[in-house]
Amino acid sequence: MGTSLNEALKDTSFYREYIWKSIKEEATKENMSADTVFEVIAIIDPLLDKAVYHFSLTYVEAFQKSLENTRAAILELSVPVVPLQPGVGVLPLIGNIDAERANLLLEETLRQAEKLRLTHLIIYFRSINCRYNGSK
Fold first, then answer.
1. DSSP tally for the chain: helices H, then strands E
2. For the chain, which has fewer Cβ within 10 Å, the N-terminal or C-terminal residue?
3. How far is CA 124 from CA 21, 32, 72, 93, 131, in A?
4. Which of 56-60, 89-93, 97-101, 131-135 has the lowest mean pLDDT?
5. What residues are paired with 82 via a beta bridge?
């Protein structure tokens, strides 16, 4: 995905122009009637539209998958169980915890605690909901 969807879709208009130009040249060379030219265009145009649609759909799906993978990686990094000494670790948590993060915390913390063979886990939580109310 080295280019934006917008740029890729703009390029498709060039393909359409090239195809129409080729049809015009062949129609002139072969003395095709207007009806025949319109029949050819009626076949090719929907095919091009369908190709653009499927290209766009595939692009968006790949982009969404990339976003999901990035989000999953960020969420995994937000569950850092840090070993302090054998059997003891700390789980520093910063920020708000929504249902998705809570599920991930539970699963990932248990997995890491088992991997590190922890018997004790210290959970350090700090909220980032700091508000300034204007008083001094």
1. 3, 3
2. C
3. 68, 79, 22, 6, 21
4. 131-135
5. 90
